[in-house]
Design a protein that fits this description.
Blueprint lengths: L1 E3 L5 E2 L5 E3 L1 H15 L4 E4 L18 H8 L3 E4 L5 H9 L5 E4 L6 H4 L11 H23 L5 E3 L3
Parallel strand pairs: 1-4, 1-7, 4-6, 5-6
Antiparallel strand pairs: 2-3
Length: about 150
């Protein structure tokens, strides 16, 4: 089972959660899946990072999610790649995997990154076309982690 949930949460400068309203809103769905013998891969985002940035890492919320669910929550340091694929495929009923922030990848937001300020229209068009190809692969990779996708984001 794969769950997309929003982690539009507030963290203070010490990475302590100051508002977990949206995480709590997803709890009934998550607990239902676990109670029915499912396993969960959580894909989510935090902030609007333009690259990997520790202050936007979902590892800061892993323990809080574990506490709310009452189960250990594994963490994959990237949302795509070998680590995430191996951890997702090894999940047993009742286990949870939290993937790293999806927004660390341009494919999640669909906006090319790294173009020079003076990029031509042709350069922008080529970058968008290339990103669309990568987005498809990104989505296919995430989809491969689960049999069912539930969008519990709002």
């Amino acid at each position: 089972m794969s769950i997309m949930t929003t982690s539009a949460i507030s963290l203070d400068e010490n990475f302590h959660i100051t508002d977990d309203t949206r995480i709590r809103a997803a709890l009934p769905t998550l607990k239902k899946i676990l109670g029915d013998g499912g396993s969960i891969v959580i894909g989510s985002h935090l902030g609007r990072p333009k690259a990997v940035d520790d202050k936007y890492s979902l590892r800061h919320i892993r323990q809080h999610v574990a506490k709310l669910l009452g189960v250990d929550v594994q963490f994959a340091s990237d949302c795509v790649g070998q680590e995430a694929a191996l951890k997702a495929s090894a999940l047993q009923p009742g286990e949870v995997l939290l993937l790293e922030n999806l927004r660390f990848h341009a494919e999640e937001e669909g906006k090319p990154r790294g173009l020079p300020d003076d990029a031509t229209d042709e350069m922008k068009a080529a970058a968008k076309k290339e990103l669309k190809t990568r987005q498809r692969k990104f989505a296919e990779t995430l989809a491969s982690y689960a049999d069912v996708y539930v969008n519990d984001a709002f």
